[in-house]
Amino acid sequence: MTKQEARYLAGTIRNRLSDFYREKASQVILEKVQQMEEYQNAEVIFCYVSTEDEVNTWPVIGHALEHGKKVGVPVCIGDGIMEVREITSFSQLKKGAYGIMEPDSSCRKIEKEEIQLALIPCVSADQTGRRLGHGAGYYDRYLADTRFVKAALCWGELMMDRIPVDELDIRMDRVISEKEDCE
Ligand SMILES: Nc1nc2c(c(=O)[nH]1)N(C=O)[C@@H](CNc1ccc(C(=O)N[C@@H](CCC(=O)O)C(=O)O)cc1)CN2
Ligand SMILES: Nc1ncnc2c1ncn2[C@@H]1O[C@H](COP(=O)(O)OP(=O)(O)OP(=O)(O)O)[C@@H](O)[C@H]1O
């Protein structure tokens, strides 16, 4: 299977997922994140701001902010290039590229060295940490020279036995789904 085929397959499955499933699974994934030692110890996390087609990260961002963690979220600044900016409140988010909520320009840039844990979106993933994104390369480029813990959040229904990857794809340290964790 090619990446394109895997993306298409995941998309057709995703479109059939009920709101009930999405909410329940997001809730279980949120609890798993909160139980992670790396999350509890992290002072600075990098987390995507989810759309309706992704595991919901709004509660985890809220939890992190309430517990005094610094939270950085992605902002697209060019073709396949993104940076991470700190938000201290949801009110700093504005609709940006691809309809995704992004931090406004008043938000401070967070350097890669500051981050201890990243919660990463995916279209699909496998148990061994191979991850499929939208194909624009934003995450693979950004993650290429980073050392923080990388955890992809994935609907269990969208996980595949084996995701096709190439040498530029960054391996996740964990894939967290409502079904099984992978270390
Ligand atoms: N919440 C969130 N933020 C993110 C990403 C992401 O995947 N999710 N990104 C990760 O790169 C970057 C934005 N990049 C994106 C690149 C392409 C598409 C895109 O093509 N979306 C299509 C669906 C494609 C598909 O079916 O896979 C669309 O919206 O129609 C979306 C985001 C940075 N911020
Ligand atoms: N470190 C990198 N430097 C330059 N180009 C890269 C890098 N990583 C990925 N790319 C390029 O980006 C494009 C998209 O890559 P790929 O299909 O792996 O994206 P993806 O993992 O699905 O998406 P994303 O990383 O945005 O979630 C490819 O053309 C790939 O060669």
TrEMBL record:
Its EC number is 6.3.3.2. One of its GO terms (biological process) is tetrahydrofolate interconversion. Belongs to the 5-formyltetrahydrofolate cyclo-ligase family. This is 5-formyltetrahydrofolate cyclo-ligase. Keywords: ATP-binding, Magnesium, Metal-binding, Nucleotide-binding. NCBIfam families: MTHFS_bact. It catalyses: (6S)-5-formyl-5,6,7,8-tetrahydrofolate + ATP = (6R)-5,10-methenyltetrahydrofolate + ADP + phosphate. ATP binds at K3, Q4, E5, A6, R7, R131, L132, G133, H134, G135, A136, G137, Y138, Y139. PANTHER family: 5-FORMYLTETRAHYDROFOLATE CYCLO-LIGASE, ATPASE INHIBITOR/5-FORMYLTETRAHYDROFOLATE CYCLO-LIGASE. GO terms for molecular function: 5-formyltetrahydrofolate cyclo-ligase activity; ATP binding; metal ion binding. It comes from the Bacteria. Substrate binds at V49, E54. Its cofactor is Mg(2+).
